[in-house]
Amino acid sequence: MYTIYTAPGTGGFAPETMLEAGNARWKREIIDTEKDEHRSAGYLAINPAAQLPALILPDGQLMTESAAICLFLGDAHRGTGLAPQPGDSSRPLYLRWMIYLSAVIYEADLRCYYSDRYTSDAQGADAVRSCAVDQMNAAFAIIDEHLSRHEWLADKAMSAADIYMAMLASWHPDIAALKQACPRVADVWNKVAKVDFVKKTNDFHKLW
Hints:
Elements lengths: L1 E5 L6 H9 L4 E5 L10 H4 L9 E3 L5 E3 L1 H11 L14 H23 L11 H23 L12 H11 L4 H7 L1 H11 L2 H10 L3
Parallel strand pairs: 1-2
Antiparallel strand pairs: 1-3, 3-4
């Protein structure tokens, strides 16, 4: 059985959706971040980075980093069809966008909402946040242009990358503006949101 340490509205959304899609045996261990449980000695023994999610594999190994977990689960549960496999022409696109989303947009989200952590200047947080939003918007614009030529991020079928993108889009500080500027991103997000196993995960996370 998989055990995922998570909390509503966090990056646990995408990995949990992958677990749900794979009909895997899994359970949630909810960490109350408002009570700083992610910084408790018990949780730090699991993940010293004090971040969510963390996944314990059936063999007892620990995985962190939501994108890495999604990549692993997509390959471990191939029947979901959410991870193009090696040799598939969609595989390079899939890997490209999974890494881009996690390295660029997820990081911009962190700088947007935790801007004080990214500067030693007591007056600098607002500038960090403004720059993060600009970079987020630029990154989504690149994705939107890609989607003008592809139905999904990995081309012809929904993948974990589309689920991951929908999660990140839901965290945008001005969703109405994002949807207006990037209608193709909004369209993919809307299609992802209608999938049954995504709905089930969102019943817990309530991202939209």
